[in-house]
Amino acid sequence: MEDSYIENQYNLIKEYYNKFLKDKNVKLPKLKSKKGYTKGALILVFLSQNYPNTRKYTKTELTKFIKEYYPEVNDVQQARHLGAQSGWYIISGTRNDTCSDELKHGEYQLVTLETNYPGFTGEKRLDCINNDYWETLKASYNYRCATCGSKEGEPNLHWPNTITKLQKGHMNPNKPLIEGNVIPQCEKCNRPDENYWIYDKKGRVVKIANPIIIDKCSLEIQKEIYSRLYKKFNGKNPTDI
Ligand SMILES: [Zn+2]
């Protein structure tokens, strides 16, 4: 795909975004990062070809396209995330939703750029936490963020221009957000990229929740992790464990 096409198409998406989606809290991926085009932008450009007459694409077609920019990618998960987590109206045959009747397993389609994904509010997924439980929990933390100590209604300790609003922080993001797995956190500590970590009740990071974080470590730490795991699994191939 030509760079000029990608850029024009992204600008078109951006126009729709500013007009219809921005105030619905839909998240627009940046066109480029240091590594070049972002996967999110590429997927939106790909799926929006010929807009508004979009068509279905198979995961294979999408992966083939993304591989031209990210050869290491074998499985494109972002298309689903762009729907459920970022709010774009992309339906997929892999998700169990009512909109996907016409799509087969592994197919994606951008339905429209004029409205958000059905049910998307821009807030975290609905949780099953009882309001009384939440109020009692916050009180037990003296209305402070478990991680940084910022107090509800007061300026954030590290971002003085932000007034602290406590949110339901996920202690272990790999488990559902239910009572016992929640701590109060300010919006700065409860950012989506903090889903890399598992916290204890005191708001301290205690474990890794998402191995992607290892990609961000120095080569030295990566080697150390690798040699620990190599020893632990006797040098077996990961698929044989
Ligand atoms: Zn905080």
Q: Mean pLDDT, as a whole number?
A: 89
How many separate structural domains? 3
**Cα radius of gyration in angstroms:** 21 Å
Cα distance spanning the termini? 40 Å
Helix/strand structural class: alpha+beta
Could you please describe the fold and organization of this structure?
- The strands form four sheets. A three-stranded antiparallel β-sheet has the order 3-5-4. The protein has a two-stranded antiparallel sheet with strand order 1-2. The chain has a two-stranded antiparallel sheet with strand order 6-7.
- 28% of the residues lie in helices and 13% in strands.
- The model is unreliable at 95-100 (pLDDT under 50).
- It is built from six helices and nine strands.
- It has three domains: 3-112, no CATH class; 131-209, no CATH class; 211-241, no CATH class.
- The relative contact order is 0.09.
- The chain has helices at residues 3-21, 39-47, 59-67, 78-84, 131-140, 219-232, and strands spanning 32-33, 36-37, 57-58, 89-92, 107-112, 167-170, 182-185, 197-199, 205-208.
- With 241 residues, the protein is α+β, with helices and mostly antiparallel strands.
- The structure holds zinc ion (ZN).
- The site of zinc ion has 8 residues, from loops.
Summarize the structure.
The chain has 241 residues and is α+β, with helices and mostly antiparallel strands. It has helices at residues 3-21, 39-47, 59-67, 78-84, 131-140, 219-232, and strands spanning 32-33, 36-37, 57-58, 89-92, 107-112, 167-170, 182-185, 197-199, 205-208.
Top keywords for this entry?
241 residues; alpha+beta; three-stranded antiparallel beta sheet; two-stranded antiparallel ribbon; 28% helix; binds zinc ion
